[in-house]
Amino acid sequence: MLCVSAVCMAQNITIRAVDQPASVVFRSIVEQTGKNFVYSSELLKDMRVSVNVKNKSLKHTLSMIFKDSDIEYEIKGRNIILKRKPKPKRQERKPSITIVAPTLPKQNAVEPEMLEEVVVVSRLEAPAVETAEIGAKKLTAQEIINTPVMFGESDVIKALQMQPGVSEGQEGMAGMHVHGGNSDENLYMLDNVPLYQVNHFAGLFSAFNAEAIRYIDFFKSSIPAKYDGRLSSYLDVRTKNGSMEGHHGSFRLGLTSGAFNIDGPIGKKTTYSVALRRSWFDVLSIPMLALVNSSDEEEKIRLRYAFMDLNAKVTHRFSNKATGFASVYFGNDILKTGSSDKHEPECGWCYDDKNDFHWGNLVAQTGLNYRLNPLMSAEFTAAYTRYFSGMKRDWLTTEITNDGTTESHSISKTNNNINDWIFRADFDWRPNDGNRVRFGGNYILHSFLPARTDRNYTVGTTQTLTRDSTWSYTANEANIYIEDDWQISEKFRMNAGLHLSLFNIDGKTNYGFGPRLSFSYRPSDNWAVKAAYARTNQYVHQLSQTYLSLPTDQWVPITGRFKPQNADKISIGAYWQSDNKVFAASAEGYWKVMRNLVDYRDEYYLQPPTEMWNAQLCSGKGTAKGIDFKIEKLYGKLTGHISYSLAWSDRTFPDKNEGLTFPTRFDNRHTINILLNWNVSDKVSLNAAWTGHSGNRFTLLPQVWESPGFGNSYIGDESPLKTQVNNYQLPFYHRLDFSCTVRNKRGYWTLGLYNAYCHMNTVAIRRTYNNANHPVFQKVKLLPIIPSISYTWQF
After folding, report:
1. How much is the pLDDT for 704?
2. Which residues contact 280 (CB under 8 A, 6 or more apart)?
3. Number of CB atoms found within 10 A of residue 102's CB
4. Residue 319 in contact with residue 354, Cβ under 8 Å?
5. Which pLDDT score is estimated for 401?
6. Using CA atoms, how far apart are residues 527 and 585, in angstroms rounded to an integer?
7. By the 8 A CB rule, do 490 and 523 touch?
8. CA dihedral defined by 150, 151, 155, 158, rounded to 10 degrees?
9. What is the pLDDT of residue 542?
């Protein structure tokens, strides 16, 4: 029996284990503290552990585990080093009390001494040389917190942006473009349930609250057969369970937001966990807005923005075999803008302009984990997930002429939403030590409403009501999968699987076939070479008119003449780790072909507003290829990695760019990431991150049509002339970020510095006019050096 609660309170631990393998108990400690275990391969062979602690320090927990045993520990930075105590002369070894080894052979029970040349590392993520996967990554909450980011807001996606093959997109944003894919080609899941909207503040922050996270799984090349529905990557965020041993939590106060979380028991078999985060932007803007508006009683500016995230989870243990859970996530953004001019001259006009935006997610799920027998377990889940976005514009003008006063009032409302009902069953079967078989399936009932706009236009006593041609869609999706992770021999390992899917919409059924194969050959303990193939399918896509995350983005299904998107990806890799497993290195190459991609066609904005939404779209194909290099230091006071990516990515659409192939927006040829974490002491840690990459691509408009102006001044509108898509490359991008964590008895301070040497990177080029009314181009630079500070109080 094992009961674990991931309570990250200055590394305090709650764990109850009865006769459990040492590796299982160590994994629980790793999840709660972010530290790693380093020990001889023979030190704990076949040993089992019994321990019961609640909200105790790491040192106390380890002392309880190893008391009355011949094993001693030493904590060095992020590592817990285990070794055999020196054997007293002419004295028999004392029997273990906490750790027992009922299956240990007699010849090994007396003493295997520590073998310095063979080291086992117990950590959340298995070493790459030991798995069949390519491009897989598991992150703990502590690793996410250790990545410096803007405003000190720990962020899952920004932590993944430091991995090779992952592009951040726009500066400072929580976007993710993986191996040449678009941002909508990543499947984001919260406890195995898909999310459609994962960004706040136009993408400045992601929707995942670090205080609620236990760990995450990320896949970009070898895709497990369980996952499908996107072309590029899969990210599954797992949230914390509550503690059975008391109520604990924390409160964080930062410059841009605050967060609160608490967990604990409800009775003897039930736990709860609640995490809440909310921004302060609307509060901070009140005095600034009041100051601006005080200068003129007639002219007013309207601005308010806020976001929030709520995670809540309840877990109940019915028996040793069955555990049930229920959870809710709600994320919401609100933006209100506008201005008004209420001057009333003898002749002229005044106006009142109001814009309201809101967007977000709602996820509710319940499930049951059940152990069918000692070799097989199952998880049954029912969930509801909703994505919503809405925009409203209220435009009121009053025109005053010699003939009288005319009032015009225009109201437009646009709504876009998706509602999914999900039912799934997943099974995990281990028939023997060399095989792990996972299989299952799900059914999803989709309801899509692409952007539908209602307009109400009133002039005087005349009123006009219009609605565009968009209607809602209902779709049925079903998936089944099976895979086997097979350790063929000491040198060969294979993961083979198959994912089958269907998507029925408008009386048409589309089928998806997704074979997966990964193969690993390990010529020595230090080396492994791998090869993998994966086909993925995608039935929904996001239409974005900008590269920011805005409520104008639409999630729409594959309908009409458009076919499901699919991609074939081939990957190869070579992996090395040092004898002591302190250092690791890898090189991963990939080649990907994407079909039936969807984008806006040339001059899509010329389509009549009453046309169907898909009249503005076209389909095409894309390719991506490259190689990722990475060198890591995994253990010690100083840890981190250096990575370099060489990549190409392009698109070809018959109805875009005159059918010519063009580079993607984030076709960054060279990317370098450096991440360092230094545990100075138990109280102080320093983190640094440097990133540099080739500039993003940009469509520069060298010529435009101009409407006539008056005299020598330009007051007309511009219409762009056709030009090559992404025909200009921005300058090389680079920046350095720092963060420092200082712990005390009550909690810890976090200090941050974004863009430490204040390199103002160019993010766009805009066309404007100089004083002589000649067109000129100007570089747009946004983010200077940005300091941050926050305090987290733990209780």
Report:
1. 63
2. 255, 256, 257, 258
3. 8
4. no
5. 73
6. 10
7. no
8. 0
9. 84
- Residues 202, 548: contact at Cβ < 8 Å? yes
pLDDT tens per residue across span 113-124:
333 444 555 566
User: What's the start-to-end Cα distance of the chain, in Å?
Assistant: 28
Distance CA 144, CA 618 (A): 38
- Give the pLDDT score at 93: 45
Mean of pLDDT values over 608-629: 81
Structure tokens belonging to residue 530 = 């791998």
Q: Indicate the pLDDT class of residue 4, thresholds 50, 70 and 90.
A: very low
More confident residue, 452 or 794: 794
The reply to whether 65 and 171 lie within a common domain is no
Residues 346-372 as b or e (16 or more Cβ within 10 Å = b): eeebbbbbbebbebbbbbbbebbbbee
Locate 725 and state its tokens.
Answer: 């898509």
CA-based radius of gyration for the chain: 29
| Residue 577 binned pLDDT confidence (cut-offs 50, 70, 90) | very high
Q: Are 663 and 726 in contact (CB under 8 A)?
A: yes
Instruction: Indicate the residue among 54, 74, 89 that finishes a domain.
Output: 89
Is 388 strand, coil or helix?
Answer: strand
* pTM of the predicted model as reported, rounded to 2 decimal places: 0.81
Of the candidates 726, 750, 737, 720, the residue with the CA atom closest to the CA atom of residue 786: 737
Mean predicted confidence (pLDDT) in 536-562: 79
What is the reported pLDDT for 223? 94
Task: Please answer whether residues 121 and 127 qualify as being in contact, where contact means their C-beta atoms are separated by less than 8 angstroms.
Answer: yes
Assess contact for 225 and 327: CB atoms under 8 A.
Answer: no
How far is residue 572 from each of residues 181, 515, 582, 659, 669, measured CA to CA in Å? 19, 17, 24, 32, 20
- 61 within some domain: yes
The enclosing H or E element of 61 equals helix 58-66
Residue 100 forms part of a structural domain: no
Residue 507 makes CB contacts below 8 A (sequence gap 6+) with none
CA separation for the pair 479, 499 (Å, rounded) = 7
Residues 785 and 659 in one domain: yes
- Residue 6's pLDDT is what? 35
At 679, list the tokens: 């545990």
Task: Specify whether 80 is located in the same domain as 205.
Answer: no
Range of the domain at 28: 1-89
355 and 217 belong to one structural domain: yes
What are the angstrom distances between the C-alpha of 534 and each of 183, 328, 570, 590? 19, 33, 7, 11
* Cα–Cα distance for residue pair 755/749, rounded to 1 Å: 20
DSSP state of 342: -
State the Cα–Cα distance between residues 709 and 706, nearest whole angstrom. Answer: 8
Mark whether 140 and 275 lie in a shared domain. Answer: yes
pLDDT computed for residue 553 by the predictor: 72
Please, are residues 291 and 320 in contact by the beta-carbon 8 Å criterion? no
105 band by pLDDT with thresholds 50, 70 and 90: very low
* Residue 20 sits in the same domain as residue 146: no
Total count of domains within the chain? 2
Cα–Cα distance measured from residue 293 to residue 338, given in angstroms and rounded to the nearest whole number: 12
Among 258-262, 502-506, 555-559, name the one with the lowest average pLDDT: 555-559
DSSP codes joined into one string, 187-252: EEEETTEEES--EEGGGTEES--GGGEEEEEEESSS--TT--S-SSEEEEEEEPPPPSSS-EEEEE
Structure token digits, residue 699: 């469509």
- pLDDT tens, residue by residue, 328-347: 999 999 989 888 887 665 55
Of the listed ranges 11-25, 573-587, 662-676, 739-753, the least confidently predicted one is 11-25
pLDDT at position 307 over 50: yes
For residue 124, being part of any structural domain is answered with no
The H or E element that residue 394 is part of is strand 376-401
How many other C-beta atoms are found inside a 10 Å radius of the C-beta of residue 440?
A: 19
| AA identity, residue 21 | P
pLDDT in tens, 633-681: 988 889 999 999 999 999 999 989 989 999 999 999 999 999 999 999 8
Residues present in the chain in total:
795
